[in-house]
Amino acid sequence: MxxxxxxxxxxxxxxxxxxxxxxLLVPVHLIVHGLAVPxxxxxxxxxxxxxxxxxxxxxxxxxxxxxxxLYHWAHRFRFVLEDVGLHGLRTxxxxxxxxxxxxxxxxxxxxxxxx
Amino acid sequence: MTVPRVERSGLFYPKLPATWxxxxxxxxxxxxxxxxxxxxxxxxxxxxxxxxxxPQGPGxxxxxLETLRAPGWIVxxxxxxxxxxxxxxxxxxxxxxxxxxxxxxxxxxxxxxxxASFALWAVVSxxxxxxxxxx
Lengths: 115, 135
Description:
The complex is a heterodimer of chains A (115) and B (135). The N and C termini of chain A lie far apart (53 Å). Chain A has helices spanning 8-36, 46-54, 56-83, 90-114, and one strand spanning 3-6. Chain A has four helices and one strand, in the order E-H-H-H-H. Chain A is mainly alpha-helical. The longest helix of chain A has 29 residues, at 8-36. Chain A has one domain (10-114): Up-down Bundle (3 helical TM bundles of succinate and fumarate reductases). By secondary structure, chain B is mainly alpha-helical. Chain B has one domain (20-134): Fumarate reductase/succinate dehydrogenase, transmembrane subunit (3 helical TM bundles of succinate and fumarate reductases, Up-down Bundle). Chain B is 69% helix and 6% strand. A two-stranded antiparallel sheet of chain B has the order 2-3. In chain B, helix 1 (25-53) crosses helix 3 (71-98) and helix 3 (71-98) packs antiparallel against helix 4 (110-134). Classes of the chains: A mainly alpha (115), B mainly alpha (135). The interface between A and B is large, with 60 and 61 residues.
């Protein structure tokens, strides 16, 4: 039987790390930045947010918080597309999903760089 | 690290309709869990835009928060929160199964590992809330 090298373990590791980050950290940030602040239940001033996000350690945290779950998405969404019957498009789907996550990583770096 | 693996191209794929996951509650929950990653990623993109508005000044930042007050965005965030919580619960329940923890000869029961994960989640969430709101 033919065997080949594959990069799958690498993507799987990013998937697992992203899943853990998403499970631990995303719900609180979603509640605070998506609901509590916009609805006025609490407020975080622009100055405080800017000071927080300007801190190098917080930047590193934000990078992990945003970038890793994108790989979690890429991995799961890839297999969702295959599971609904797109087996023939395995390679383009993988390139599209992981490519989108890499683009998102670059965008995250770019945004954090400017703060 | 790369590992050799069996070539997939020769595998047999059963012909299933694209809606196979609607047939059974377990399949449906599986699909919901997989799709939770879409909502989590979308939220993170919206949050990234919020961070992008920060260096543009208090005006731009306030205007973005005003946009997020729109009912459509609130509904999006409520739905995304439901999916995010579903991801967390299913993820931590699985940690006990995936991550086998041993103490000497004995395996720590998966339920205990899952329980520890839930406890960690609670501690991290409270700490983050305290940091973000109090500080």
